[in-house]
Amino acid sequence: MQTRGTITSSNPVSxxxxxxVNFRHVNFNGxxxxxxxxxxxxxxxxxxxxxxxxxxxxxxxxxxxxxxxYQGNDEASMVDNNTSDFNGRSITGGxxxxxxxxxxxxxINPLQNPYIxxxxxxxxxxxxPSSSKFFVNRNNNRPNKKQRVGMAENVIDVFARHGFIIWxxxxxxxIDYQHFEVGSYNFIHKLINQSPDSARQMFNQYVNHYxxxxxxxxxxxxxxxRTICINEVRQ
Length: 235
Known about the structure:
Order of helices and strands: EEHHEEEHEEEHHH
Strand order of the largest sheet: 3-8-6
Number of domains: 1
Helix content: 25-40%
């Protein structure tokens, strides 16, 4: 079975460039909880903005604890329906660093938003496995079916407005519904090679560029605007 990787002995970002973000959220029972994730320092302010908006919208998050709680085991975190960011691991099935290892990728509600890979033609590997019965079908307007909450499709714009413009649900293979990330590796390397203040300014300019682009295309539907603006600002 293809795995999602575990924590590694080194990391492309020094520990002093990582920040813990604490935030309030509601769980699936409507109870207010405190969550925390670890992110790259230059994106921390915008990540605070993401979770502040999700809380205002009462978008439910099952739980959010740092990946050390699972000894860096990403699959264990997914099985526990844990929302997370930093994990010093390689990309799935590869040797290069995942964007999680830079603290610039967020996985949200893995149970409601599974990771689906295709190791062989005609087969599918669904993580966490319990998602397969209830969340592979992403249509949320179905006859005689209740609306499902906590699904990533409902908050794509929230993440994008704060710089996490890439959504894994847009990919062909794998399809990673839980996953949101910052643009290119080239841009990420620019952020980590700048001083924290300069990197934060650079990231905020990137965010403003995207939002200005969205505002400019007032005649287009949101999906079209999003496609245009991601292509325009992705570095």
